[in-house]
Amino acid sequence: MRMLLIYIRNAKYRLNGFFVKLFLLSLGCKVGKNFKCLSIPRFRVLPKKNIQIGDNVTIGYDSIFEITEEGKLILDNQVVIGDRAYISTSSLIHMKFLSGIAENVSIRGTMHQLQKHNPVRLNKNKTKPIILEEDSSIGASSVILMGTHIPKGVFIGANSVVTDRIKLEPYTIYAGSPVKKIKERE
Asked: Which residues contact 39 (CB under 8 A, 6 or more apart)?
């Protein structure tokens, strides 16, 4: 009985993925095989050929994507996006093979410029790409800001803030706000 329930649950995730795949394909995006969505994600901006999803990608419950017309999102094979993730950019966000983010992670490739003579909301946006290399993981409730490059094998602990000011080393564990090196992976 338990196996039947698991099968039904997985079938629902695949069906959600199928409908999202049809939606994205109809807008000129690319989506690979075995795409699963635990629930239907929200797109705050209508995708226009600017989302590319590889094979065996899973998107968690209640995720939100805000990829502007100028922006691009690339999810390579076997990427996992946790529940309630928020991914936003006017540039590039590229999550490479076997990279993943846990629940409540916010990835922001764009921010307001902070000029003192203008109200913040009237300033132009500033944007830089974000790259998560292979086998990198972002812990729950972390924030990844524009210009960040997460090297291969890096693990970012929960509740961390990563900016482009911090140079990260491959196969190392970081945590904190802002992140600090904890130790190298064994």
From this structure: 16, 60, 61, 62, 63
